[in-house]
Backbone:
């Protein structure tokens, strides 16, 4: 059933796949992000309560969504790597981690910027912001663990195990923080979940959500391809690749 | 019979050995030679499943050791650089604990400890023993075990000359009973073994017999 | 699959018992494992009245949270050296090479570690509750929350220790890995105590803590076994 996965277990195949996918993801990301942002920031109507400051949702919501999404996909990669002994899936864990951490950080910053006019403070112990903060810690843990090992294969496996343990905890953390929040703040104003959103505002948001997914995929592909090259730097197929690209470069120079 | 097929191990991007093949049958002792960092310990650990090799398979009695790990492990005795001796427990307690985890071994700790010259020291904590004595506690397992394959990583380190002779006699005995020994050592074996295989690691030699 | 299954199970049980007894013996020889976390627990709690205010009202309010945070840090200390000696001496390798499943051996070790180092925290918690001016009818709830919560912290922390045991990095990395995972336990345990102090029903929090304990019981030994196998690589 999972036989189709096995070719990608080979470093060379995985590398080629990443490099082939990279331009598609990059272009899709560029198009959707530019279109979504221009539409959202310039043409979408202003909110009747919050005015123009609501426009930060075009960045806050996508980064918040994909900060969780990236963690889940990281854990899935780790699981695949451990269960089917696929080294590249474990490497993908570390390829995703910093991107996910950056998304989480962006979600936190945009949340704080949004919170300032809403609540009058940069930081409020709102349930979602608190969960995002803890998620950032989880990402930093994975990154720090990976970087602590000299042997990158051991590092990738350790990071995978941690990601899986973390993903079991993410829903529990989310739920516990929500519980804690309702317990201590009672009926606080939750500006983040609006009951309904007008289609004029929704379309650019969806575009940006797609855009951030593509940029996540693009950066992950690039990082994974590089990581595979670094890890296999002295293997024959990488040497062949280097020779091939250097002969191409010299022939280009000669052609000029 | 232990069979290694196409074993390739990288450590931190450096190829230690590639496409290594060899077979170890009953009554045979295999000495792995090579300079420091040639991958001798890694080879032993890869055979045991403590190190994940990049390529290759290992078979014990025709069965893959990764699929039938239990079948393989209950026939193996391993003594590595770290010898799994807790320094706060006595030699006796250490052997007792080891025997629980290796239920096929016999339980005559007294004579095993006597063989390695630790009579009278059975019941004092290991941290008050010397380095060589510490090592001897671990080596006492060779007189307790009933496993078929012994995998020993530098067993002669910190052992005096008499001890080395004693160990080699024990190897002879084990081989006569149909056992197998896989050993790494810097010095050559001083005794004459009938069926000695030498395996050289290091450089680009792959699988010499 | 295995023809001599009953015999194998018997040897599993013997191995489990042997590890448990070995840990107790070691703790008996080195009682620092028992005493140090306990003293640490006591000292950390003492700091709070000095740092915030000794006013009975304030202490009463922050008491359960302070006791729980102190217990959490004390368990971090326990966890930090859980597998270190066994790893350095090669015992972990020997366990991996035995025919008994690694997760079972790990479970025995964890159970022993809880009895040695965490149960004493539970026992002295009433004294700390008195120091923090916690009402006496809340003390049973506090002890109950520690009884169920500390094993979760120990099991989850042990995963972190198993991942970092070969690194010689000390506690900083470990706390980065483990402390975020402790947050749910902290929230539900303190909320349980708070509910008890208002004479409210706390069976909801209790049920959640118990289910987290069950999940960590089954999941942690497997994760630890995988992490230890990876780390000897």
Residues:
């Amino acid at each position: 059933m999972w036989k189709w996965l096995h070719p990608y277990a080979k470093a060379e195949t995985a590398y080629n796949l990443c490099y082939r996918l990279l331009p598609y993801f990059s272009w899709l990301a560029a198009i959707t992000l530019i279109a979504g942002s221009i539409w959202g920031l310039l043409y979408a109507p202003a909110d009747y309560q919050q005015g123009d400051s609501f426009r930060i949702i075009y960045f806050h919501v996508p980064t918040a969504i994909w900060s969780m999404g990236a963690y889940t996909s990281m854990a899935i990669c780790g699981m695949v790597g451990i269960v089917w002994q696929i080294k590249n899936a474990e490497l993908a864990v570390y390829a995703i981690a910093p991107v996910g951490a950056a998304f989480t950080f962006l979600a936190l910053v945009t949340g704080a910027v949004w919170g300032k006019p809403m609540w009058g403070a940069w930081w409020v112990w709102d349930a979602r912001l608190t969960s995002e903060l803890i998620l950032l810690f989880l990402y930093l843990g994975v990154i720090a663990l990976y970087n602590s090992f000299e042997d990158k294969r051991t590092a990738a496996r350790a990071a995978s195990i941690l990601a899986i343990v973390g993903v079991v905890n993410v829903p529990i953390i989310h739920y516990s923080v929500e519980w804690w929040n309702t317990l201590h703040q009672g009926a606080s104003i939750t500006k983040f979940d609006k009951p309904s959103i007008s289609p004029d505002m929704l379309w650019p948001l969806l575009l940006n959500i797609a855009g951030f997914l593509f940029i996540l995929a693009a950066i992950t592909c690039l990082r994974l391809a590089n990581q595979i090259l670094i890890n296999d730097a002295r293997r024959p197929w990488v040497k062949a690749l280097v020779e091939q690209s250097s002969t191409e470069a010299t022939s280009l120079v000669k052609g000029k | 019979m232990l069979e290694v097929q196409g074993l390739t191990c990288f450590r931190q991007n450096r190829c230690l050995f590639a496409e290594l093949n060899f077979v170890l049958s009953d009554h045979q002792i295999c000495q792995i030679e090579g300079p420091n960092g040639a991958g001798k310990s890694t080879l032993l650990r890869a055979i045991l499943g403590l190190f994940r090799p990049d390529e290759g398979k290992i078979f014990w009695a025709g069965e893959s050791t990764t699929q039938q790990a239990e079948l393989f492990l209950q026939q193996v005795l391993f003594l590595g650089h770290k010898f799994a001796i807790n320094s706060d427990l006595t030699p006796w307690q250490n052997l007792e604990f080891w025997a629980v985890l290796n239920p096929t071994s016999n339980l005559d700790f007294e004579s095993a400890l006597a063989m390695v010259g630790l009579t009278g020291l059975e019941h004092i904590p290991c941290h008050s023993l010397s380095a060589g004595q510490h090592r001897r506690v671990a080596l006492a397992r060779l007189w307790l075990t009933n496993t078929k394959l012994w995998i020993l990583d530098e067993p002669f380190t910190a052992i005096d000359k008499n001890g080395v002779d004693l160990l080699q006699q024990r190897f002879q005995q084990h081989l006569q009973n149909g056992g197998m020994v896989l050993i790494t050592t810097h010095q050559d074996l001083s005794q004459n073994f009938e069926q000695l295989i030498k395996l050289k690691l290091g450089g680009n030699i792959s699988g010499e017999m | 699959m295995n023809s001599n299954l009953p015999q194998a199970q018997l040897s599993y049980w013997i191995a489990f018992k042997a590890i448990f007894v070995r840990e107790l013996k070691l703790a008996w020889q080195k009682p620092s494992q028992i005493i140090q976390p306990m003293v640490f627990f006591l000292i950390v709690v003492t700091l709070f009245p000095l740092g915030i205010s000794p006013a009975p009202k304030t202490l009463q309010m922050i008491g359960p949270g302070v006791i729980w945070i102190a217990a959490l840090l004390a368990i971090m200390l326990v966890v930090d050296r859980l597998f270190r000696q066994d790893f350095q001496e090669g015992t972990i390798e020997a366990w991996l090479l035995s025919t008994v499943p690694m997760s079972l051996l790990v479970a025995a070790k964890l159970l022993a570690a809880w009895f040695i180092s965490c149960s004493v925290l539970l026992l002295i918690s009433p004294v700390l509750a008195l120091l923090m001016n916690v009402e006496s009818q809340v003390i049973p709830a506090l002890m109950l929350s520690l009884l169920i919560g500390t094993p979760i912290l120990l099991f989850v922390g042990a995963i972190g220790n198993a991942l970092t045991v070969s690194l010689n990095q000390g506690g900083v990395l470990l706390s980065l890995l483990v402390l975020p995972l402790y947050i749910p336990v902290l929230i539900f345990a303190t909320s349980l105590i708070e509910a008890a102090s208002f004479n409210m029903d706390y069976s909801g929090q209790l049920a959640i803590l118990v289910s987290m304990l069950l999940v960590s019981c089954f999941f942690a030994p497997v994760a630890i076994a995988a992490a230890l196998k990876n780390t000897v690589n």
Summary: Chain C touches chain B through 25 residues (CB under 8 Å).
